[in-house]
Structure formats: structure tokens, C-alpha cells
Design goal:
By secondary structure, the protein is an alpha+beta fold. It has helices spanning 2-13, 51-62, 84-92, and strands at 35-42, 68-73, 76-81, 96-98, 101-108.
Length: 124
């Protein structure tokens, strides 16, 4: 009996050529919300500044030491805010600069590859 049941489930759950699957990622209502931004320095300088220096300076300027995590990824920076209002202030409060280079920001979902987010201009 148990072999028949397991065979039935194996057959019902098998994926065959030509089958299509769809799924969605749902945020649990119990999980804390996450607020992301991706940033990039637009600079003409040959040497890219030390990411730790950029992170330390901007975190201090924005006074978000305990409410912002910032990390370097390729030529980008991923900013992870704990509060939506902090994220909004940073996105709308610019322009932001680091050593005379424009720090361009864009909304980011935290899931896709950061290098695919288009951030090479700043609206004026």
C-alpha cells in the first residue's frame, strides 16, 4: 500500500519535458520589511576610492549608524535600511557627493544583480 501511495505522489509531482512551472516569492508577514537602495560613484578619477572610506563617510554624513548597513558590490554600493523613511530621505534628499564625485542612487529590490540596476545619471 505505501509503495502505491509513494509511486502515486512521485508520478503526480514529477516534472516532464514541456511542463512549465511558475512560482512567486511571498514576503512573510512575520519577517521584517527590508528597504534597499543601490548607489554608484560617478567619477572621472582613475583610482576608485576605498569602499570602506566611502561607507564610513556617507554613514556619518547621513547620521544613520545604527539604521543603515552598506556594503560594496563590484562598482556599486548596496544600502540596506531598517526604516522606509530613512530610505526615502536618502533617495530624495540629494544630490550626494563623496570627494567631489556624485553618488548616484536608485531604488533596489534586494534580489536582482546590483550591476543590472541602471544608475549612470542623475535627474536635474
Amino acid at each position: 500500500m505505501s509503495d502505491e501511495v509513494s509511486q502515486h505522489f512521485r508520478s503526480a509531482l514529477a516534472i516532464h519535458d514541456g511542463d512549465s512551472l511558475s512560482f512567486s516569492v511571498m514576503r512573510s508577514s512575520l519577517a521584517p520589511q527590508q528597504f534597499f537602495v543601490v548607489g554608484r560613484l560617478l567619477t572621472l578619477k582613475c583610482k576608485i576610492p576605498d569602499p570602506k572610506a566611502v561607507i564610513g563617510t556617507l554613514t556619518s554624513v547621513w547620521d544613520l549608524h545604527n539604521r543603515l548597513q552598506m556594503r560594496a558590490r563590484a562598482d556599486r554600493f548596496v544600502l540596506h535600511f531598517t526604516r522606509a523613511d530613512d530610505r526615502k530621505i536618502i533617495l530624495t534628499g540629494g544630490p550626494w557627493f563623496y570627494e567631489r564625485s556624485l553618488f548616484v542612487l536608485a531604488e533596489y529590490d534586494g534580489l536582482e544583480d546590483v550591476t543590472s540596476v541602471p544608475i549612470d545619471s542623475f535627474p536635474v
